[in-house]
Amino acid sequence: MPEIDYFLNLLNLEHLPPLPEDPVKRADVESVLQNGYVALDNLLTEEDVQSLREEVDRMTGENPRKGRHMFEGIRSRKFDKCCVFDRVLALNEYFLMKGYTISATSTIQINPGEKPQLFHHDDGYTYLPRPRPPMGVAIMIAIDDFTAENGATLMVPGSHLWDSKRRPTMEEAVPMVGKAGTVFYFLGTTWHCGGANMTDKPRRAATIQYCQPYIRAVENQFLAVDPRRLSEIPEDIVKMMGYGLQKPFIGYASSSSRLHLQLQQTLIQWLAPLGEGTREIAFDLRTDFTTELRIHRLKFVLSVPSSKMNPHISVPRQHSTASFGGSSGAGSAGRGNSSIKMPRFFKRLFKFPQMDFEMAIWEMTSLLIAPKKVFKSMYYHKQTKNTWHRPDPSFTYLLSFFLLLTALAWGLAYSPSFGSIFRLSILFVFVHFIGTSLFISTIAYFVVGRIFGPNGAAANLTGLSRGSRMPRRGAAQGLFAQPGEKEQIEFGYCFDVSNRAFFPLYLHLYVIQFLLLPLLTRNPPNFLTTFLGNTLYLSALLYYTYITFLGYNALPFLHNTELLLLPILVLSILWLVSLIAGWNVITQGRGVEGLFWGV
User: Fold this and answer.
1) Cβ–Cβ under 8 Å, residues 1 and 29
2) What angle do the packed helices 527-553 and 372-385 form, to 10 degrees?
3) pLDDT tens-place string over residues 292-327
């Protein structure tokens, strides 16, 4: 066809193979060459679509965020067949070089009332001038019906041929309307966007992107998926994840494929905790021989070297119990364990170059402005490191340093002697801060999981959770979780929460109280001084309670954590009673003397 030759010349795709002989696949290719996209009908049955809906709901949880949701292969096997649709692979073989890889996998939910997405083309991140061949392709899987009203993807026909300067307008776009189960295939150079959802129901979809073998994938699939789970994944998908070797020898490591190198390193790391010696292991392994991926039953005899001889061999974080004395993976969800192990937190106490003080300063600032961000970052830390606890003592060191400065100020003002200042410094840092945090975190470690865990007493209070609970994410399985692995309270995370909760209390009682003390301790006390002093202590304790609540509310396996806010009601009542009775917590309650206890 003359028009096809015209498009080929314009795209500079003379290297492309002949058009497929199958009439259906040939029509698919011709549509993509001309428009930049094609709709593929009847690739999924109604049962398949329903299964994908349930899987998306499981992964995104209740009240999912707007926009994209990552669902690396570690999180689901239901989408495997979507990666290898026959008609999609035929298109990939035409538009991509042999050895193409999966670049990214995401779910997309457009909620009611959302506005149109900005126009973009998926391989724009390569910054290569246009017009040019596509650096990648993508499929959009309609999990719900796609209509012009509910935010169907808008494609701009012919935009894959444009140069780098031209930009699309909404009038040029065409909505991709189709029943649930329709798959829309489009080139990485095709301009498109998500439409506006003007209905009262969300519109769900999943997208899988593929890229040329010489282009770096958006998501490193061979890092995102635990290599121990490769036997669960179809062989052709493993190859698309970047484990194979392709011409011109792209993706090798130490003259071997990534799979061989990963195998050697991972086995040594797994066996290192067992001590030196040899181990024989038999397991299924996918190997790459002469570009074909085959599965073999192999036996390996590895000689595990001493970690003293090779300091680079250590137990990887994703396979170890990273809790600050938390329970092992065999423990029940949300429950603590009496066996407290030596945490990495202590091992890093004197490794100052590894400490992230910039992150600690950001956390302190966010605790005052937007405390939810602190624990949201810990949620993502769990997904990438497979531990809720952040074994970085920089926050503890920084707050201890502030307490030392505060102790110096208090000592110089009210007890100006070296001995008193020294004892006050020890009291502030090791008793008030670290001692209190350890005490409260120990109680939380043994109690919170038993009360708020899946089998705890609070989990049965269904009436409370329906209307009042905050939006929750799905289970944070992370990149390295094992199938069926249950979540658990980590002692280190409890310590992290107590530390963060102490910072606002420190500002209230150690800094602001110091500055206002001449006013707050005026004799005789009056209503103003009583109100200011009592309110200062109330604010400090309320903030401590609220930060503690946010910390445990961030754990998706705990239920009805709003009950942790009950002390706010009790404290507010006591504050009101103290004002009515004229009882001053600083002078009559000896609040300041409590800070100097023992000094």
Assistant:
1) no
2) 20
3) 333 333 344 444 444 333 333 333 333 333 333 333
Say how many C-beta atoms besides its own lie within 10 A of residue 167's C-beta.
11
Q: Are strands 183-187 and 101-110 parallel, antiparallel or unpaired?
A: unpaired
Q: Taking the alpha carbons of 562, 567, 572, 577 in that order, is the dihedral positive or negative?
A: positive
Per-residue DSSP letter, 240? I
pLDDT at 295: 38
Q: pLDDT value at position 26?
A: 92
Pairing outcome for strands 101-110 and 154-155: unpaired
pLDDT of amino acid 269: 55
Name the token pair of 36: 């930049």
C-alpha atoms less than 13 angstroms from C-alpha of 418 in its C-beta half-sphere: 0
Residue 472: left if φ>0, alpha if ψ -120 to 50, beta else—which one?
beta
How distant is the alpha carbon of residue 596 from its chain centre? 43
Q: Strand pairing of 174-175 and 154-155? A: antiparallel
Fold of 2-219: Jelly Rolls (2.60.120)
- Residue keyed to tokens 């930009």: 167
Half-sphere exposure of residue 524, counting CA atoms within 13 Å on the CB side? 4
Exposed/middle/buried for 101, CB within 10 Å: 0-12, 13-18, 19+? buried
What pLDDT sits at residue 500?
A: 94
Instruction: Report pLDDT for 74.
Output: 46
pLDDT value of residue 381: 66
pLDDT of the residue at 45: 86
- Angle at CA of residue 299, ends 293 and 303, nearest 5°: 120
Transcribe 100-154 into DSSP letters.
Answer: -EEEEEEEEEE-TTPPPPPPB-GGGGG---SS---SEEEEEEESS-B-TTBTPPE
Q: What value does the CA radius of gyration of the chain take, rounded to a whole number of Å?
A: 30
The tens digit of pLDDT for each residue in 373-428 reads 888 877 766 665 667 888 788 899 999 999 999 999 988 988 888 888 898 899 99
Predicted pLDDT of residue 468: 42
Give the span between the Cα atoms of 495 and 437, in whole angstroms: 6
Residue range(s) occupied by CATH 2.60.120.620 in the chain: 2-219
**Furthest-apart CA atoms within the chain: distance in Å:** 99
Angstrom distance (rounded) from CA 272 to CA 265:
11
**Tokens (6 digits) for 120:** 């973009």
Q: Which residues contact 337 (CB under 8 A, 6 or more apart)?
A: 326, 327, 328, 331, 488
Residue ranges for the chain with pLDDT beneath 70? 1-16, 59-76, 226, 228, 244-348, 380-386, 462-487, 589-599
Q: Who contacts 323 (Cβ-Cβ below 8 Å, separation ≥6)?
A: 341, 343, 387, 388, 389, 488, 490, 491, 492, 493
* pLDDT for the residue numbered 266: 55
